[in-house]
Input
Amino acid sequence: MWRRLGFGLLFGLLAFLAGALASYVLVLRFSSNLHDRSVEAAMTSVFFYGPVAGLIGFVAGTAFGGRKAPPMPETLR
Output
């Protein structure tokens, strides 16, 4: 259980960083806001897209991380 939780936290943190960075670049590139584009990009990245990506990464890391390999059949040993 602790191993899965650790993988979930690791994947969640990495996904948060990747999602925030990607959304920052995308908002800077495609926003029509001319007044405060950099503030919009920073706030949107850190407070919306980063946490959404982090939550998805946490769920994926918890579900798939830390799985143990199935035991090898006797015939292959």
In short: The chain has one domain: 8-64. The radius of gyration is 19 Å.
